Amino acid sequence: MRESESAQSLELCLVVFYFCLTLQEHTRCFLLRGIGQPVRDIVRSGEQAASLLTTCCPSFLNTKFLSTVPGMLKLLQMFVGGACQALLVSYGMGFSQLLGPSYISLLTTASASAATVTLLLFCYVISSNTFHLIRSSLFELLFNISAATSYCSSSIFLFFAVKLYVYPLYVLTLGIVDYPAMKTAYIMGFCLSIFHAVDAYYSFKQYRGL
After folding, report:
1. CB 50 within 8 A of CB 62
2. Which of 27, 96, 127, 172 is the most exposed place for a label (fewest CB within 10 A)?
3. Which of 209, 119, 197, 121 is nearest to 155 (CA)?
């Protein structure tokens, strides 16, 4: 019995590790190729990870949630939000004074939203009762509306700040890496705004019992 649980835990860790490596590779593609194909690749990787998690996790976990649209949205919000935060911390610290409140705004939004989504996802997978209670309440609806609005506004704010302050440095220095990273960060912010808006729609449907 213990060997079986250990094997399932190892499989779960390997699945999460695989998805993190895949997300890191697609984040690199954002810097090189733009948004279209990497976003499709991330969604496809999320679907594969959700399928693997559903099959290899212990039966007492509510892994069926991960194969639903809200579950996939939660996975995307968590991993893309974490990648956005990592880009801002890794490449934006040196420009924080130059970018001002726009940088702090998106970093705060990504940190708070990704942490909340991770906590919600953990609770939903551990307990199906928690999932039904929270999803049928106003919390998910208001949280997703707030996150979508914050991501959209802070990404627009950072977009103008990057174009105004960082892009001229990128042109003058002929390839400063911070500009593509900051560009990827606010593009991710726009994508996360869409993810949370769609999740708000599904939350509203579940709140109204539709």
Report:
1. no
2. 172
3. 197
